[in-house]
Write a structure and sequence with these properties.
41% helix; eight-stranded mixed beta sheet; 21% strand; alpha/beta; 10 helices; 272 residues; 8 strands; Rossmann fold
Length: 272
């Protein structure tokens, strides 16, 4: 797939990603992992290994991680976070190497991925998990919700809607699901008998995250202008106003995300 993320952006967001994860999903995941004697994990679209650094510490026992990304430069930055955790970076795309590796994993995981994939690809992933009896933890899927502080800016809703439309563009895997991805993923897993739990994992950004907010607004500006070029001047002025306010006392931005846990139907431990 052609979507490329710079290491600087991934580094900038990692701490916020980690603190935003839906921790209530970890208990059911650990219970399943222990019950089945899990050891193999597949991380799709792994970037520099942020998901590995978060999740490996939450799973007991020896672990073997296969981490798939199309960007070789990002893969070179991945290291094992601790003894007992083996890592195997694998360069390849999600449609090829990614889906092929599902059958060898007890747990399939990804972070900030589902909103840029298509329903067809997601259906193939769910089918692969079902065939292998794998669980899935798919985190930080953007859900289209953006809440700015105070009374807001007249262009907030227009930019949000333009960005959400832009998210549905084809990312080389077919039309992307964008903000509907979390809900669609849950429906697809449920159709295969999985017990699922979809939990909110919003980013909450304040003045201390002004650099991240600036990078986020810059990306939104670019996407919105591509979607609504006739409003380019107004959108650029909106971005200037929002960046200028990001470090102000009391600034608070909420960006909606969801985490999905899906446990196989043959695991009898009550609802996830």
């Amino acid at each position: 797939m052609s979507e490329k993320f710079e290491a600087a952006w991934l580094d900038l967001r990692e701490a916020v990603d980690h603190r935003s994860r839906a921790e209530e999903l970890l208990g059911p995941l650990r219970a399943w992992w222990t019950a089945v004697g899990g050891s193999t994990v597949l991380d799709l679209g792994c970037g520099t290994g942020s998901n590995l650094r978060y999740l490996a510490a939450e799973l007991p026992g020896r672990q073997e991680w296969t981490l798939v990304d199309h960007d070789e430069e990002l893969l070179t930055r991945i290291e094992s976070p601790s003894a007992g955790v083996e890592v195997w970076p694998l360069q390849g795309d999600l449609a090829g190497a990614g889906l092929a590796a599902v059958s060898r994993a007890r747990l399939v995981t990804a972070s900030a991925l589902l909103d840029i994939v298509s329903e067809a690809w997601l259906g193939a992933l769910v089918g692969g998990c079902a065939d292998a009896g794998s669980s899935a933890l798919l985190a930080l899927t953007y859900d289209g919700r953006v809440e700015w502080p105070g009374s807001g800016d007249p262009l907030d809703a227009l930019v949000r809607d333009a960005v959400n439309e832009h998210q549905r563009r084809d990312k080389d895997l077919g039309p992307a699901l964008g903000p509907t991805a979390g809900r669609v993923a849950e429906e697809l897993f449920r159709s295969r008998g999985y017990r699922t739990r979809l939990a909110p994992s919003p980013w909450r950004l304040g003045p201390d995250e002004a650099a991240l907010t600036k990078a986020l607004v810059t990306g939104w500006e670019r996407a919105a202008v591509e979607q609504r070029p006739e409003l380019g001047t107004e959108i650029r002025r909106w971005a200037e106003r929002r960046v200028a306010a990001a470090a102000s006392p009391g600034f608070a931005l909420v960006v909606g995300h969801v985490d999905l846990l899906a446990l196989p139907p043959d695991y009898d431990a009550g609802p996830a």
